[in-house]
Amino acid sequence: VIQVLVVGSGIAGTAAALAASRAGARVTMIALGPGASSLAGGALDLAPWDAHGEAAPDLEEDALAVVDALDAFDVRGPSRIVATLAGILRPARGVDRALLDLGPLHDATVWVPSVDWPRWDAPLLARFWSDSAEAGARRLVFMTAPAHMIERSEELAMAEADMAALHDSPARIAWLASRLEEGKKAGAPAASAVLLPPWLGLERSRAEALALAVGVPCGEAMSGPGGPSGLRFERARDRALAASGVERVLGQVTSLAYDGAWRATLAGGAGGEPLAAFDAVVLATGGLLGGGLAYRPMSGALAADPRAAAAPLLTATLDAPLLVGMRGAPLRPPSSLFGGAPESHAWPFAPGSLLERGGVLVEDEGRVRGAPRGLLAAGEFAADAPRTWLSALSTGARAGRAAAGA
Amino acid sequence: MIGGKLASYRLFAEEMSTLIAKELAPSTRCTTHTSPLPGGDRALDARALGADLGVTPVAARRLVYRQGSRAARVAERVRRSPRERVVVCACEPVIEAEVRHAVKEEMAETIEDVARRTRLGLGACGGMRCAARCAQILAEELGHSPREALGGARRFLTRQAKMRVVALGPAQARQEALALAELSASLGTKDRG
Q1: pTM for the complete prediction?
Q2: C or N terminus of chain A, fewer CB within 10 Å?
């Protein structure tokens, strides 16, 4: 049996582990903690949704199999429309099932229950959503009317994820449905759907159960980092990895070496049991946000250590035979002792440049360029792929499959 | 006199006036040290104010720090409309009533104006969590269209990121990656018209 090591437990690493396992490999996943995937809001893009004119390709079968195994997201069928707490409606290729998909609605009224909960200013949000281009094109109207959905006063001070955890209880969902019924009796509009704060479950989405009780589609608006969607991903991942028999290790890989097989060194792990040798390794440690890549401008260090001054601006945080670069070319150290000028590589001066595209150079299927056989990279750790959730999932699934065939 | 800080302008002015007064020898006595600045006429008990309004002690303390006795006017808003006690900017923190007060009483018209008056959006997250919400409030107070308002939020976030870029280090680059991911996910980096 092929032994595959996956480093990182975000969506790319998860996809790699599930795809490799599905292809018959024995998989070990080493990861330290949450990264970008745990902060995602639940609107899933393949190409960035706000870039013009980019037609997104179809998802491959391996990627769809990963989505099915997670059993928490919908990506098949036509594009979705979700409402964000920032006040827009936006298209999304896929969604976390707890989010309300406005895509199927036309000529419809959506009820936004108003409730005295800090991050939910229903009248203002409804006005913003009603004004968006997507609402105009579909003739969607967002109406508010009160619903008393707060059970205890402590809930007023609770964060979104804590509210979502409360709604894991079937009793609470039944109570919420009864509150919405009362709101309807008290004059809420006859609505085709109900759009709610991001409260609908943490273990898994409770939107479907609520919709059954209420009789129309119900779902969350999309919230920002720290909302419940990232946590639902973590739980869906843990269930899917356990079901497919992936062995999980908590730790940080500091280096990888090849001596006919791949061997990993863990941080602080001199005394521990050595890890088995692996036939293939998938690196899915994330980009700048996840911690797989680090930005190191060298001003300050240049006098003390000339070698530090000669390093590229973006480096991998683990030691492995790989090259960091972008647009297919390795990075060079900047020509100035003071480092590169940030306005030449950093957002918002230089969108789509080094800090957004840079990563490990890969060939087809995520094979790391110039590395011995069996080293792959996926997700935001790899260069030149869009920094989107579904791109990370697709590159992860591809790399996992390739690793299993190593 | 060129330059200075808010806290030192008055001291500079007082010292300069003393020098000039020596030359002119006027008969009126100096009153600078006895005239309070706006909000400086009396001390407010931030803890009691917070408890009274249902605002956390930290938010109440910051409100009183910025507004002095004028915090009472912001408090009046909360008493009329208790919803306005909610925190808009969690980093500084700034409550909704203070944002609305800045628009109604202090001539704020943009998020930048609100930021200068309240420090909204100038904390650790750089406006990532509050710019859109502040834009919604401004639109309501000033009758702006939602589209104009969200364009204002995008402009604010972009401008703030440009100001931070000079201090970009390993940790700040990570924070910027998060801010950019959040902006792209929930607002979009471009105005789609």
Answers
A1: 0.92
A2: N
